[in-house]
Amino acid sequence: MNKSLLYLVALLFPLFLYSQSDSLVLNDTTQFSNAIRINLARYKTECAHANRTGDFERSKFLFDSLVQNRLTGTRFDDFTFKKVNNSKIKLSSIQKPIVLVTYASWCVTSQGEIPALNKLAQKYGKDVQFVVVFWDRRAKMKKLAKKFNHRVIVCYAHESYRNDSQTIGILKHTLGLPNTFFLDENLKVSDIKRCGVQVSLEKANYQKGYALNYNAFLEGMVPFLLNKELEKEMLVIK
Fold first, then answer.
1. Residue 175's domain spans which residues?
2. Helix or strand or coil: residue 188?
3. CB-based contacts of 69, cutoff 8 Å, min separation 6
4. How many domains, the chain?
5. For 57-70, how does the pLDDT look when each residue is reduced to its tens digit (9 = 90+)?
6. What distance in Å separates the CA atoms of residue 72 and residue 207, rounded to the nearest whole number?
7. Cβ-based neighbours of 44, under 8 Å, separated by 6 or more
8. Which domain of life is it from (predicted)?
9. Cα separation of 101 and 130, whole Å?
10. Is the same domain home to 104 and 220?
11. Both 54 and 117 in a single domain?
């Protein structure tokens, strides 16, 4: 067996593993937390090896395979998040599709990422609820919250706060961050993406970064809006 074929087998093997026993996860009643718990050990082992060897393409493939074959179609846990204004929000109370983005204050967002998210929230906020969760203490949130459109609900959670440990264990310490979770009105997972399309930081690349991030978020929203015309709106990347 030549080296190219061996590499292909090694690349596809995790996809085969994650596609087995679909009855465990691919139904409307299986919770996201159960699905990720079943698959997490193997996923982390495979990813750790890929990252140690510098095979980031494989690491991305493993993430995409886990999402597509094991997590998409599960029911997201009905988390309650603390909002910056001291109130709380339970996901099931939103009753419309949700774009849930997880960050941390020390995470450097990519070029044009927040402006792209704000533009989409302003344009589609009546049909889709945008929620941003920072894995940080409240003290840092007021300044950060000002960066987001008023239609984006800014929340926070931290290990030191009471009742946050389960949420952080399920969302932060499994797939890492930053991530974007696309949930339908019944909290069914439609897709999960690594948010933030990276480009170099030169000012000349701002428009490209903005367009790439806008398109990435918009792509995840298309199934919610049931409007194929959105696909024609993708910004031209120059």
1. 80-233
2. strand
3. 15, 18, 19, 22
4. 2
5. 999 999 999 999 99
6. 31
7. none
8. Bacteria
9. 8
10. yes
11. no
Q: Which of 42, 71, 100 is the last residue of a domain?
A: 71
134 lies in the same domain as 101: yes
Residue 54 — φ and ψ, nearest 5°? 75, 15
- Residue 11 · residue 17 · CB < 8 Å: no
Q: pTM score, two decimals?
A: 0.83
CA-to-CA dists, residue 229 to 27, 217, 218, 219, angstroms: 29, 15, 12, 12
Is 9 part of any domain? yes
Q: Residue 103 class from Cβ within 10 Å (0-12 exposed, 13-18 middle, 19+ buried)?
A: buried
Report residue 199's pLDDT band, with 50, 70 and 90 as the boundaries.
low
Q: What are phi and psi of 28, to 5 degrees?
A: -75, -10
Instruction: Say how far apart CA 236 and CA 228 lie, in whole Å.
Output: 17
**112-168: pLDDT as tens digits:** 899 999 999 999 999 999 999 999 988 888 888 999 999 999 999 999 888 899 999
Q: Look up tokens 């000349």; give the residue.
A: 204
Integer CA distances (angstroms), 236 to 122, 123, 162, 232, in order: 20, 18, 46, 10
Between CA 25 and CA 38 the distance in angstroms is 9
Give pLDDT tens digits for 40-50. Answer: 999 999 999 99
62 plus 102 within the same structural domain: no
Residue 238 within any structural domain of the chain: no
Q: Which of 47, 71, 95 is the last residue of a domain?
A: 71
* Residue at 104: amino acid letter: A
